[in-house]
Design brief:
Elements lengths: L1 E5 L5 H16 L4 E5 L4 H13 L4 E4 L7
C-alpha cells in the first residue's frame, strides 16, 4: 500500500499527481490509497494515522500549514 494524502482531487495538479502515482504503483503491483483533506489539518492527521495503522509501505502528503 502506498498512501497519497492531498487537499482536493478536483484540482488539475493533484489529479495529475494521483494518476501518475497510481500508474507507477500498478506497475509494481502496489495499491494506492487516496485520501482528500479539503485543506483541513485534522483530516490530514487522521489520514496519516490510518495509513500508519494499515502499515503502508510509504505515503505522500501535501500538508496544510497554518499561517499566522
Amino acid at each position: 500500500i502506498i498512501g497519497l494524502v492531498i487537499p482536493d482531487i478536483k484540482n488539475e495538479f493533484f489529479s495529475t499527481v494521483a494518476r501518475t502515482i497510481a500508474a507507477a504503483a500498478a506497475e509494481h503491483a502496489w495499491q494506492m490509497v487516496l485520501a482528500t483533506t479539503d485543506d483541513r489539518p485534522e483530516r490530514e492527521r487522521n489520514a496519516v494515522r490510518s495509513l500508519l495503522k494499515a502499515q503502508a509501505e510509504a505515503f505522500i502528503v501535501r500538508y496544510t500549514m497554518k499561517t499566522r
